[in-house]
Write a structure and sequence with these properties.
alpha+beta, 8 helices, Arylsulfatase, C-terminal domain, single chain, Arylamine N-acetyltransferase fold, 27% strand
C-alpha cells in the first residue's frame, strides 16, 4: 500500500484531485488525468540494457513520478493499480492479448484493470497503458457501444469467456476477465525485453492523447492529430528528437536509442 506522501506525489504528477469516495466519477477523473499526463512509451526497451528498471506496480513509480517518464502497459497500469488500491478502490489486474498484424500477441501480453466502484453494479475496464485506448473507463460488459473522446468502443463476447475490445469497429485486444497477480506478468515482461522477435525491440514509440487529438513520436517521425487534421514531420537529427520528447511529452533524454532501434511505429 502506498503511503500518503507517495499518493500525493502521484496525484500531482497527473494533475488529479484526491477523491472523496471510490466512486465512478472519481475513477473517471483519475483515468482521464492519467492518460492525458503520462505517455505510453517503450523507449527504455530499445536501449537493450536489462539493468534499466522496468517495473511492475510500485517499482515503476520512481520512473513515472520521480523522473517524469511514461512507460509500457505493465508499468502504467501496474502503477495505476497501486494508486487506485491506496485510494480505496476494489481493483484487480487482468491479462490481455493485443492484436498485431492480424494475429494475437502472447498470453498476458497486455495488462489492464478491472475496477469496482461503490456506486455501480457493473465493474469497469480501466486501461491507462495502451496507446490507442479510451480516455475514460469503460463498463466491463459486452453489448452496447460506449462513446469516448478517443472513439466508439465496444466489448464483444469471445471464445472461452474472454472479451474482445473494438475501437471504431476495429479489434484492439482480447481480455481475460479473471483476476491476476502483478507477478503473473513478469515472464512476459522479460520476453518483451529480451526476445529477438519482441515488438518493443523493433518499434520504439512514445504516444499520448491531447484534449483535441494525439501526438506520437515513432523513431524520428513526429505525428500530430488536432481536431481531425493529421500532420507528420521527419525530425532531422538527435537534437530535434530530444527536443520533441521534451516539448510534447515533458521527457528529458540524455541519450537516444541506437539508430537501428529508432524505427517507425504506428500512430
Amino acid at each position: 500500500m502506498l503511503d500518503a506522501t507517495t499518493v500525493d506525489a502521484y496525484l500531482r504528477r497527473i494533475g488529479a484531485k484526491r477523491p472523496e469516495r471510490p466512486d465512478g466519477q472519481a475513477l473517471s477523473h483519475l483515468h482521464e488525468r492519467h492518460v492525458l499526463s503520462v505517455p505510453f512509451e517503450n523507449v527504455d526497451f530499445a536501449f537493450g540494457r536489462p539493468s534499466l528498471p522496468i517495473g511492475l506496480g510500485e517499482p515503476a513509480l520512481e520512473k513515472i513520478i520521480g523522473r517524469g517518464r511514461g512507460g509500457c502497459c505493465y508499468e502504467l497500469n501496474g502503477a495505476f493499480f497501486t494508486l487506485l488500491s491506496a485510494l480505496g478502490f476494489d481493483v484487480e489486474p487482468m491479462g490481455g492479448r493485443v492484436l498485431e498484424d492480424g494475429a494475437f500477441g502472447p498470453l498476458l501480453g497486455h495488462l489492464c484493470l478491472r475496477v469496482r466502484t461503490e456506486d455501480s453494479a457493473d465493474p469497469w475496464l480501466a486501461d491507462v497503458g495502451y496507446g490507442r485506448a479510451f480516455r475514460f473507463p469503460l463498463r466491463l460488459r459486452a453489448g452496447t457501444p460506449q462513446q469516448d473522446p478517443q472513439g466508439s468502443f465496444e466489448l464483444v463476447e469471445a471464445p472461452k469467456g474472454d472479451l474482445d475490445l473494438y475501437r471504431d469497429g476495429e479489434l484492439q485486444y482480447r481480455v481475460e476477465p479473471r483476476a491476476r497477480e502483478l507477478a503473473d506478468f513478469a515472464p512476459t515482461l522479460w520476453w518483451f525485453r529480451s526476445a529477438d522477435d519482441s515488438p518493443f525491440l523493433a518499434r520504439q514509440v512514445c504516444s499520448m492523447p491531447t484534449p483535441d487529438g494525439r501526438v506520437t513520436l515513432a523513431g524520428r517521425t513526429l505525428t500530430r492529430t488536432e481536431n481531425g487534421v493529421r500532420t507528420q514531420e521527419e525530425l532531422a537529427d538527435d537534437a530535434a528528437v530530444r527536443a520533441a520528447y521534451r516539448t510534447w511529452f515533458g521527457i528529458e533524454l540524455d541519450v537516444l536509442p541506437p539508430p537501428d532501434r529508432q524505427t517507425d511505429g504506428e500512430d
